[in-house]
Design a protein that fits this description.
binds adenosine-5'-triphosphate; Tyrosyl-Transfer RNA Synthetase; 14 helices; binds magnesium ion; Rossmann fold; aa-tRNA-synth_Ic; Trp-tRNA-ligase; 2 domains; mainly alpha; two-stranded parallel ribbon; 8% strand; Tryptophan--tRNA ligase
């Protein structure tokens, strides 16, 4: 039997290049070797978007199409909706009994996200989302979790929670391993923070050729470089980072040309936009094929959710037995 892989995305918007290099590319490569579960994280979306439930349905559809467009194969992998697996909520409640509030408050990603969002007082669901994420991984006993860098503190916390469960009750769970992609944290077009759906600094996987050119054109570069002949500082330029990620082999020449003031930003941007468009082209083709099959995304998500539910029920039987909650 294959080991399981689980990962997911908040249904808060389109998937972007950060998702691709941080996690999606790995998922596609691993889906043959692992029994893979990809979760449309609607409950986790609500931790910050509880006032906009009307946005979830469209984003569920959008993220599913993004998955299919990068090459996730619904015949091999299971795509499912988080809120339709009530066992995840149940596990979250049990795990919550032995996770301290302080350990959550000190989680560096929780701290960073709370300060970005300006939360002075933390919502219970937001603070506890590493616990709910542990339940996501645990319900299907996943052993590997492909994620970006921001998820590493949560993975550490998940391992601790599952270890503790095993010590307290019975050895039901494995300790999952995080697998980080080629680029653990892709910088956004603003050059200030990671590319992120909620920051509007993304290049989305469904962007048209023209949109990619326009977005790259507007992206920040080295502010000290005014004329083409000024020596540039590629290390602080998001465009240079994209060269190292998407045109790795040629990036040495870009670095030199920029530093020596021989390569202008306009030319440099045109090269990276062309490479990104080449990367996105097969994704667009796959997306179009899937879009032509009406109701297809809905059907695969429904089937995936049913499969996930069966596995969740099996795990809960073991959990209830371990916790002596098997009354009848
Ligand atoms: P939001 O702003 O709504 O939180 P997001 O863009 O951060 O959205 P998530 O759904 O939170 O996306 O993250 C899904 C997965 O993609 C996680 O494993 C995360 O680590 C990874 N990821 C997201 N952004 C990047 C990035 N810029 N670079 C690398 N990995 C990323
Ligand atoms: Mg995020």
């Amino acid at each position: 039997m294959k080991e399981r892989l689980l990962t997911g995305d908040r249904v808060t918007g389109n998937l972007h290049l950060g998702h691709y290099v941080g996690s999606l590319k790995n998922r596609v490569e691993l889906q043959e070797s692992y029994d893979s579960f990809f979760m449309l994280a609607d409950v986790q979306a609500l931790t910050t978007h509880y006032k906009q439930p009307e946005t979830l349905k469209a984003h569920v559809n959008q993220v599913t199409l993004d998955y299919l467009s990068v090459g996730i194969d619904p015949e091999q992998s299971t795509i499912f909706i988080q809120s339709l697996i009530p066992e995840i909520a149940e596990l979250t409640a049990y795990f919550s009994m032995f996770v301290t509030v302080n350990s959550l408050k000190h989680n560096p990603t929780i701290k960073a996200e709370a300060s970005e969002k300006g939360y002075s007082d933390l919502y219970y669901g937001f603070l506890g989302y590493p616990i709910s994420q542990t339940a996501d991984i645990a319900f299907c006993k996943a052993t590997v979790v492909p994620v970006g860098e921001d998820q590493l503190p949560h993975m550490e916390q998940s391992r601790k929670i599952l270890r503790r469960f095993n010590q307290l009750y019975a050895p039901v769970f494995n300790e999952p391993q995080a697998i980080v992609g080629d680029c653990a944290r892709l910088i956004g077009l603003d050059g200030d923070s990671k590319m992120s759906k909620s920051k509007g600094n993304t290049i989305d996987l469904d962007s048209t050729k023209q949109e990619v050119y326009d977005q790259i054109k507007k992206a920040k570069t080295d502010p000290a470089r005014i004329r083409r002949s000024d020596p540039g500082h590629p290390d602080i330029c998001p465009i240079y980072t994209y060269h190292t990620v998407f045109r790795k082999e040629e990036s040495g020449g870009i670095n030199e040309g920029c530093q020596k003031g021989m390569l202008g930003c306009v030319e440099c941007k045109a090269m990276i936009a062309a490479s990104i468009n080449t990367l996105l082209e097969p994704m667009h083709e796959r997306r179009d094929t899937y879009l032509q099959k009406s109701n297809y995304t809905k059907e695969i998500v429904q089937a995936g959710t049913e499969r996930a539910r069966l596995i969740a029920k099996e795990t809960m039987e073991e959990v209830r037995e371990a916790m002596m909650l098997n009354y009848f």
